[in-house]
User: What shape does this take?
Amino acid sequence: LDVAETLSSQSVRLQSWIWLVLLGLIQMGSAARLFDNHCGMTNSGLVEEKGSITFCRRCQLGIALGAVSAIAAMGLVAVKIWVRVKRRMGWLFTAEMVVS
Assistant: This one.
């Protein structure tokens, strides 16, 4: 199994899914940092809420959306590589259309 050669021979759509994994991780990390800084616990253990309730809920939504998009795209990339190696591609296009 030559992963580097498999990835370089894949279509442009595989690279788009890889970008979605990276951007989902960045979104999740940024939202988590904002949530910790503005809605989390301080060093003294007391809750200090600098952000509004709406801001904190939007941070939680950003964390959830980033995690879901990264996990879904990572799963699809793994399936595409597995199918490419096994040379069975019948249902992959349909699965990709449903996920996107």
Q: What stands out?
A: The first helix runs from residue 3 to 9. The two ends are 27 Å apart (CA to CA). The mean pLDDT is 76. The helical segments are 3-9, 12-39, 53-86, 92-99.
